[in-house]
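Reagents: none. Just compute today. Histidine kinase.
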Amino acid sequence: MSMKQNFEDVSDTVLLEEVKRRFDQKNSTLEEMEFLTKKLYLLNEKLKEHDSIKGEFLSLIKNVFNNPLSSLLNLSSMMRKNEDSPKTQTMKLLLDMELHKLDFQLNNIFTAAEIEAGEIANYWSEIDLRLIIEEAKEAFAYLIEEKELHFSSDIELDRLIVSDAKKLHTIFANLISNACEYSFPTHNVRISARIEDDHLLISIANTGDVIIKDPNKELFSRFKKVGVHASKARTSIDGLGLGLSIVNALVESLDGEVTYSSNENLTQFNLCLKLQDTSKAEALMSESANEFMFDDTQEMKEF
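Predicted 3D structure written out:
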């Protein structure tokens, strides 16, 4: 029997009912799609509101901590310059040391939160790389003095570079912190920088405990801890912490790459950053990252 004969055998009533059934089915599908579209729209609006609140909360928390902490750091720095009894001077040094530790850890926490929220836009300015390195190194003066470490710098730059001062400060702070922490006492930490083609090449090397095997991928993963070959002076080492994942994310945001290598007791981190055009600079020059980190800090007088 042909299809034409089949249709001829079907009454008009049956055909109309079938058409109505299919039409109702189509309307039901359209209503479901409309309902789901509205749900997705409302969810998207809630996500936008959530991101906005999260950003405002993060900004508020940073100001709440950074403003008083920067004031305390300035106070402790000025207190160290005043001569006092040996006991009081020791207390001043301990205060200054603990404040710098807290400042470093809080900056890492805030930076990690900003990376998670996708709020790591670049703020380009012309900077003197030597000053950024010296400033980052100064924060760990207590550890350098305690371990009697020697720093050597080979900065082959004859001009300013365009980059993000705050990000570079955070990158160097974490790499210098690791170099100091894992160096053998009285040994050297070497920092070098040079321009090759259209890239800035930076290396930070130290002699001390080295990472086991070749965990390049795991090393830069957030919350992933890797083992190290610990010296006899150390009882235990769990890993290198959150800092290296922050370094990796910030370097990538600056159009760069960070790699790691080790040989016996030598550890070296290598950074390759793409040079930015001077037209991107938003300021004539930024000598220090502090102006970005503590904008609201009031000038304090010595007492």
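Residues 91 and 234 are 26 Å apart (CA to CA).
Action item: order primers for follow-up constructs.
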